[in-house]
Design a protein that fits this description.
alpha+beta; 136 residues; 2 domains; four-stranded antiparallel beta sheet
Length: 136
């Protein structure tokens, strides 16, 4: 199934879903492998090392300090990787209420990581954005 590219439909269909557990980010030194049993949500290979994003408890269980807690908000809408404007729209909506966001795009969905203490405010901002798109 092809993803959606129409910005209005993307915004109206975001349906942000908040995961109930905090996530963490860690970096493994170059050449170091993912600890046995740890299944990260995402990984990013960079020159400086391998970044892992996983539930904070799973990182801690693997002996990796998870750092500050992040909330994962997944957008239910199936966006096309070539869609234009979705990231800019939700980033602006979150910036307007002073919330930073790190975005990881999968093939089917976008996943936003926001500071854990601001998770409910972030969801409210995204719901408001979807509502304003539906009204417009």
């Amino acid at each position: 199934m092809a993803g959606e590219t129409d910005l209005r439909r993307l915004l109206c269909g975001m349906d942000p879903r908040l995961e109930p557990v905090p996530y963490g980010y860690v970096t493994l030194a170059p050449g170091r492998s993912v600890p046995p049993g740890l299944v990260p949500f995402a990984s990013v290979a960079e020159d400086e090392g391998l970044t892992l994003v996983a539930p904070a408890a799973a990182l801690a269980d693997a002996g990796l300090p998870p750092g500050p807690p992040w909330a994962r908000i997944s957008l239910a809408v199936q966006s096309d990787l070539a869609a234009v404007g979705l990231t800019a729209a939700f980033a602006a909506a979150l910036a307007d209420v002073g919330i930073s966001a790190n975005v990881i795009a999968g093939f089917h969905h976008d996943h936003l990581f926001v500071p854990w203490p601001r998770r409910e405010a972030a969801v409210a901002a995204l719901v408001a954005l979807a509502g304003s798109a539906a009204d417009g």
